[in-house]
Predict the structure.
Amino acid sequence: MRRFLINQAKGLVDHSRRQHHKSPSFLSPQSRPLASPASASLVSLSRFFSSTSDMSASDSTSSLPVTVDSINPKVLKCEYAVRGEIVNIAQKLQEDLKANKDAYPFDEIIYCNIGNPQSLGQLPIRFFREVLALCDHSSLLDESETHGLFSIDSIDRAWKILDQIPGRATGAYSHSQGIKGLRDVIAAGIEARDGFPADPNDIFLTDGASPAVHMMMQLLLSSEKDGILCPIPQYPLYSASIALHGGSLVPYYLDEATGWGLEISDLKKQLEEARSKGIAVRALVVINPGNPTGQVLAEENQRDIVNFCKQEGLVLLADEVYQENVYVPDKKFHSFKKVARSLGYGEKDISLVSFQSVSKGYYGECGKRGGYMEVTGFTSDVREQIYKMASVNLCSNISGQILASLVMSPPKPGDDSYDSYMAERDGILSSMAKRAKTLEDALNSLEGVTCNRAEGAMYLFPRISLPQKAIEAAEAEKTAPDAFYCKRLLNATGVVVVPGSGFGQVPGTWHFRCTILPQEDKIPAIVNRLTEFHKSFMDEFRD
Amino acid sequence: MSLKALDYESLNENVKNCQYAVRGELYLRASELQKEGKKIIFTNVGNPHALGQKPLTFPRQVVALCQAPFLLDDPNIGMIFPADAIARAKHYLSLTSGGLGAYSDSRGIPGVRKEVAEFIERRDGYPSDPELIFLTDGASKGVMQILNCVIRGQKDGILVPVPQYPLYSATISLLGGTLVPYYLEESENWGLDVNNLRQSVAQARSQGITVRAMVIINPGNPTGQCLSESNLREILRFCCDERLVLLGDEVYQQNIYQDERPFISSKKVLMDMGAPFSKEVQLISFHTVSKGYWGECGQRGGYFEMTNIPPRTVEEIYKVASIALSPNVSAQIFMGLMVSPPKPGDISYDQFIRESKGILESLRRRARMMTDGFNSCKNVVCNFTEGAMYSFPQIKLPSKAIQAAKQAGKVPDVFYCLKLLEATGISTVPGSGFGQKEGVFHLRTTILPAEEEMPEIMDSFKKFNDEFMSQYGDNFVYSRM
């Protein structure tokens, strides 16, 4: 039983390693035999359905080209818990709730599974939306009534942006890296933030940060012999994209006891172990501020990481999408680019890719799909390959590109919208800090639950010590213990959280990820329901 | 020390092998020349708004209101936005789960997918299930997602027309699969012969390739041909017999410039064929807001509809879509508007019809102008552009030109196109970027330059071409006119 539990817990992390053990050779995609035992049947199936047309109707499902038995095994292998099983259950519950209001002890489902602020009532930044609306329908700029409806600086900014778009055509495909004028603005924003110059030619605007991550994984991973160091716990985009691109995830464990600290010694150990197994480790992923863990790295820690990557020849993939979400006075966001340049490392010294998005921060514009990666420290022939990959999709959506430039150059003191912009921004951020603290305290007050503070990002990742009885009950339902807890939580409170196994955790420990995003007025009710549920859960299963 | 991770040598070979000529060598050279101050006419990509086509007014009004919903509270809003645009903005906002800034369902907003299903039903006369419709950031993303499911390794082959839109070859390359070409017949107006299909499949199988899917582009790109109903039936029967999933790229379905072969969707033909075909053939159909008369390329809006795909497979496709969280919401609204445009009686109807018709009729005229223009040139023959947005003339390069190209280290049609670019500023894509028969050369240009500028562009091309042919000529002159 213990082996079952350990396997369940390690599933996400070790799956790719086990695949590695099974496959005898990793030289190239051409010579690599299909890795798993299931593939033997894939080969025979393909011979079966390719040869003849006189198949009986009853065989038809197994002979169709696209069934679950015959699709790309990398697709089957990858997982993404953020919109996984628990969300499906929640959606069904939500449907049922409409019809049977009285059947449940709650009257609404609250989705705390995903960092999607505007779906929970957060308002967009008005200035940004004014500019976007004017760019979408630029003939507004010719109407006199517009001046009564829009702020002066939003009109001004819209003109500036449209002038940078050839023909003012926001409906045209742009340069595959994104509109040059917008990249200039973003580069200037990066320089203002870091104090070190940024080159617009290093910037690739993408439909959110996620496609940029995929591009890098595609570039770096040729086979399971290529590995990427990922933090555990991690945001499962990384594990999923590594699986989809056929590489190996090399885990390094963040230390819960020290506020999810990153130990270079653990990095080194994992790196060496992977190499001893014949894996070429290509990159190190660092999420700062962390997701799901929320820690903001200390600058010294960041310096160690940069040095480590330089010494070991690793690309540093810096996911910095939460750079504007820092809630504690004793920590500050420093970009890895700034840290690297401060150490005196330039273009020839370290390969660094920094990811930013419009989905998080105080702007929370998830549905716009805006983001970019800044790629530094690589040769021009590699740059050409990245450009080529970007060009196959032609370009990212223009509205998202515009928004990315606005996020990196918001209103300044003296601008017409500055005061109201700052009020909106500070209001959102201070509210997030408050909600983070309230939920953290509430979780820490629960029996057997410890929760590190959310220094940044949008999540809490409490650890729950589940009694043995609960673990056994989970096993009886063929569910991971943390998923068992989360499902019970959902059914009792209507709150949707994601089991820790979706992010990875030290085997034998259990967590769940909960966002801090429900509006302030909902928080007390959430805390009450959660507290009540947990007490009755423990009453039921306490050893 | 061993290679660093981002050293060129250690990159994924699949990335290095993939090519996408539409924004390749010619485009990059054109961009360089533009920076140096030369006037460039970009006809390398189907990008209507970049060449002066105006966006339709109504959708831009609706989406602008969705961007800034606080406008809807202003009492003066009715002065600059028509009432139907205001109503439609409210309608779409109510379908979202938090406006344009919230991730939607990973498959797209349910209400919009319902509108797409209704559109498909009106178009084809058969019901469509919104649960089997996924909205994507452009049709290209949808194509990549589906090919990613189908291609397991190098032994998996995908039947692709030659010439083809190089999204297919590039994606197959990136995914490590094998492209199995089937040749369209230039002398038959780029017709599709099922015998060619059978031959291609047999050859692939003899090399140990499992052919899994077939791509059709209808109307074609770069070729523009519109498939006849009987052709579509043959293809569907073929896919049924050979157990292939049919990928129907139908993004140009609104761009039809002749009346003999109107657009018929693969789905309609499949359903018309009845059982067993209508229940057996796996079909994925793609559409977009980038083409047609909308031309909203920069929005990145598209969808695919699945037919006869088993539920568990649909789940897996959904799972992969969920990793990208959701397609961009603005484009989803554009898609909703495209499939349910203003109706007779709506305030904006007349303007909408006037704008749409204007664009489509002009495209039809430009398709003819360009075809005729090319056919009047020495050693150039050009099939008529029946649909889509491109002209794909064949350039009969004299052997001296081919020699010169070799000496310059260039593929012959690239050599020609570079010279064309430098002489006239016309930026095209060499036919080698799309595939063609050995020793036969083409270039692809769009029919999108403004109608007023067409005569001058065609004159400029003719002057260059006829001089080129004289310079390299071996006294052989062929012209269709």
